[in-house]
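Take a look at this chain, tokens included, and explain the fold to me:
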Amino acid sequence: MTLTPQRSAGTHAGRAGAAGDPEAAGSPGLESPGTPKARRAVGAQPWLMALAVATAVAGAALSLNGVLRGWAWYSPVLSTVLTVAFTMAGLRALRWRSVFVTAGALAALVLILTFTFFRPHSIIGFIPSGATMTQLGRYLRRASETVLAESSPVAPNAGIVLLVCAALGLTVIVVDALAYPLALPATSGLGILALLIVPAMIKPQSVGALGFSAAAAGYLMILGCSHWFSPDARTGAASVRNPGQFRRGSLTGAVALTATLLLQLVIPGFDQGAFPQGSRLNPFGPASGLNPMISLGNSLRSPGGDGRITFATNAPSTPYLRSVTVDSFNGDNWAPDDRDGTRRLGTGRIESGVESAATEVRVVTAVDTGQFISPYLPVPFAPEAVNGLTGRWSWDPATLSIKGVDTDSRNQRYVALSVAPQLTPDLLTQATGPVQGVPEQFIRPPDNVPEIVRTTAEAVTAGSATPYARAMAIQRYLRSVNFTYSLQSPVQGGYDGNGLSVLADFLNQKSGYCIHFASAMAVMARLEGIPSRIAVGYAPGRPTGATVSIGGHGALPEFEVDARDAHAWPELYFQGLGWVPFEPTPSRGVVPSYAEEAAAPSGASTNENNDGLIPSNSPLPTPPPSVAPLPPSGAAPRPDAASVLLPVLYGAGAVLVLGLLLASPHLARTALRHRRVGGSGVDSAAASQAWMELRDLATDYRVPPRTSETPRHFSARLRHAGALGEPQGPDAEAHRAVRSLTADFERRQYGRPPSVPGVDGARPGAGTPAGSAAGAGSTGASAAPLISAVRSSLRDHARPLVRFRAEWLPPSTLAAGRRAATAPFRAARRAAQRTRRGLAGARSRVRGALRRVRRERWLRRS
């Protein structure tokens, strides 16, 4: 058998060991057993990799400007990222193992967060204590309120900045782990991409050129650092530092950047524009509706006003358009309770539930929603019928909110017929009976009400004998000169939300906008025994000067509202009259006639973005008040078993699918190993399968075969690389297994074919060379224990991260997946090359034919 001479391993010899002949003594590059390995210097690689990871993560964090307001948050973010990244670099310079490097990075993250956010509540300024955990709970509660109740850009309070710093610190650890110990630098881009997805889905300006460029530069630095210090042994090159590498890298980067900029034009889900500055990943469509979590601050601060709605009505005064009722309050935020189990399909006939002794007025309103997008339909309260809608809609008997089943409010044109009871102070004063037929969720005060809210409610309503008198006292207090309407004060004071802690700050500062006034009156009313909820919609709008003709009603004046008119107001329940709206917000909306105070001074307004939206001092017609008593049912209906079990089943299914997805490389590798060595064949195919399994095992444990190696050279390098332990002692069995598998593969692949017993006088076993290391061979049934011995030895001598990678992210399986994924591109490239060669050949033939024709003409003329 003739073997090709071995190529010099060059710089790879220091990394993976030499590939000499194990049978020949003194083979170059081999280390004798027991010889201590040379300790290679760490060098600049950990520090340069830390700089690359920090650049990528801190650069991607630049895109969060616009999700968080201003730049004050970036200083703690940058210090956190740099601390974690360079802590890992320092520990690697001290030759710590990867698992301890990760643990040290987590400890550094805890210390820097404690020093930055909990210095007064810690031991010597950076060691966490019991007071640290108490303060952490407060910060997390404030961050939860910010996430649930605010629209971007949110105020960078300590809670939300703490979460951002913690998330970015963990991202640094994950990206570094992928790029360094797991040797998956390309995959590290997933962590960076996860950071860019947040602004891409939230900010109207998308990621932004600065954040995108900085993140891309950091990612390229990670790839370059990994490739520079750890060249791929499969290339056969001594290193990647050769002429043309920079040119190829630059070309690849340019192509990737161009594809990134242009691909969004053909992918659904991006708004129009040039990524990353003018395009926004927006799978839910453009945001031009009302947030049912009543985070209206961003809409009110919009200088232009989005989501324009026009409507024409015959009401005696411009009505409020009501979109959704927010009635569920858990102490942290208000939220709608859609009660999907009790909603009714169809809006042609709606039972308004109005059972009032007051005079009723029927109002017709024609609405054109335009680009306003919401699952809820804006209509005057209380609707009795809505006609002209497209798609399926349902309505809630308790709140009369109308919600789309398979559609939304965009480009809807419809006519709503509603009833408006005319209430008077006398009727409300007489409504003193005990509340009946109202679900407990409208009555129950929230837990942990701040003391200032409780004492304020008691002081304001002292001496008020009836529910109506208490409601008027609360409204009078909130509309007094002590309070001002402001869109900026909640942002500057860090209480731009609607939770209980925000409500306490609002009552202290006495400045806010409709969310704060409506929440304060609703909570204080519940404390005084009056059922309450909050309606979200639009305050009375502005006339457009146009008219709309409605059959049977003639030409009606048209009005318009937009995001700047977004409004929230409380509704209180009075027995026998139903739900009654109040207006506690000064300088906004219109106070109903039954809630007006004679010569009552009103709070001022510091709003600068809503010129023309604040009512003037001239008398305004009162809006149609809404009354809709709840059906006299006892408790709310109990959910059926399906509605309780389905979310649990869906959650379990999602967890199962995610677990299978994460475990798929491990499962695929295990199945492939079983197919290769689980049979009982004794032919050459079985020997080849066992040899392939040995090569893949070595690849998984970071001793991959080289393209220039013979099987014997690879076997020798594997046994002398230290991955199997010492050839004597407990690991001798693994070394014998490798030699046996190698000898069997060489005999089956290159040796004389075995003779069949009884044919041509052949003797049994004649085809087996004497003295074979394998004896009777190692294929088939005997290959499984040999492979098991090799695998156990590799696993016992591998570091924890290498062992984890080999079991759950095996490089051999991932490489096969990458080859399968890129197969269509390789096929396309080969087809393009063949086409190019064919065109070149055809062009050459045509040019040759033309030359022959010209030569023949020249010969004829001569």
Summary: The radius of gyration is 38 Å.
